């Protein structure tokens, strides 16, 4: 969870709970200005060079989908 504002308890203003995602993204929806999120986990929960590269590829794919 990106903490960008001091003195805000995010669990009180956004339905968020800790998870097992290796990478997460938060963005403002163009449709209704609400906050949306996505999370990506490691394949078999293994941190290898190959799995990390796949995570980066999936992150950019998520960004492309959101931007289109």
TrEMBL record:
Superkingdom in the source lineage: Bacteria
Entry protein name: Uncharacterized protein
Native organism taxonomy: Bacteria, Bacillati, Bacillota, Bacilli, Bacillales
Native organism: Paenibacillus aceti
